[in-house]
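Thread amino acids onto this structure.
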């Protein structure tokens, strides 16, 4: 399993992915899940993947091969991010037509999902979530981020913190906290990480960093976030049950249900 998150903000884009893939607790490997297509001054595209590694690698390799051929529809000449998302979706469907039946015979699901984001020319930065069927949705002001893979552990902090107005630095911090929470709760997600930051209208990658345990900032987040969560938890008062409204009514309902069950048993 893996975890990837991307945020489309007023200031630009923040993307973060892990690099762990596994086939059991004793077979863990590292593969990068982030692919960057960059032509400075023209476009920056970031593609992140989750799911069956053979399927996602096939999709990415086909996209790369098509991008290397002149006079062919590709990520290099698509006029908009929407058209790029459509190309990725068509490529997923092509891999499905080729491999899905054979995978089914071996009991393997066709499992693949992608996040595509970036900016082309004068259009604003955009963010898409592309599904295994090749269809996709686009992020909005109300929902400025997408996650794929093992997303549930890292979602609460993003929901509480991130909006379209969040700065790139704050969004990067939030993404790293989200990843740390996921790593702590799921062994199938792990370091090293790929962190990419893109500033609106620059049409070049601002930062693309590899984050491992020797990274002092991520190490600080890993230690301080957990410690401060415990402090906040301990600072909250314990419940005063005597002041909870409706306690007597709830108890009486329990007694009625218990008595009713008892009578049914006797009958």
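Threaded sequence (267 positions):
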């Amino acid at each position: 399993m893996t975890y990837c998150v991307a945020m489309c903000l007023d200031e630009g884009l923040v993307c973060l992915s892990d690099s762990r893939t596994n086939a059991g607790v004793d077979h863990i490997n590292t593969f990068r899940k982030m692919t960057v297509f960059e032509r400075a001054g023209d476009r920056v595209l970031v593609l992140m993947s989750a799911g069956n590694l053979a399927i996602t690698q096939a999709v990415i390799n086909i996209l790369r091969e098509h991008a290397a051929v002149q006079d062919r529809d590709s990520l290099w000449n698509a006029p908009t991010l929407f058209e790029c998302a459509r190309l990725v979706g068509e490529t997923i469907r092509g891999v499905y037509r080729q491999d899905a039946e054979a995978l089914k015979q071996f009991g393997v699901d066709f499992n693949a999902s992608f996040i595509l984001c970036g900016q082309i020319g004068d259009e604003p930065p955009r963010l898409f979530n592309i599904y295994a069927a090749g269809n996709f949705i686009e992020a909005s002001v109300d929902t400025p981020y997408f996650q794929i893979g093992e997303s549930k552990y890292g979602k609460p902090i993003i929901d509480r913190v991130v909006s379209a107005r969040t700065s790139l630095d704050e969004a990067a911090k939030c993404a790293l906290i989200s990843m740390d929470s996921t790593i702590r709760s799921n062994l199938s997600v792990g370091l090293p990480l790929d962190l990419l930051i893109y500033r609106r209208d620059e049409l070049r990658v601002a930062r693309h960093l590899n984050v491992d345990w020797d990274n002092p900032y991520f190490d600080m987040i890993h230690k301080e976030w957990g410690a401060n969560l415990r402090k906040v938890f301990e600072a909250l008062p314990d419940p005063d049950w005597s002041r909870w409204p409706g306690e007597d009514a709830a108890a009486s309902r329990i007694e009625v249900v218990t008595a009713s069950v008892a009578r049914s048993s006797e009958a």
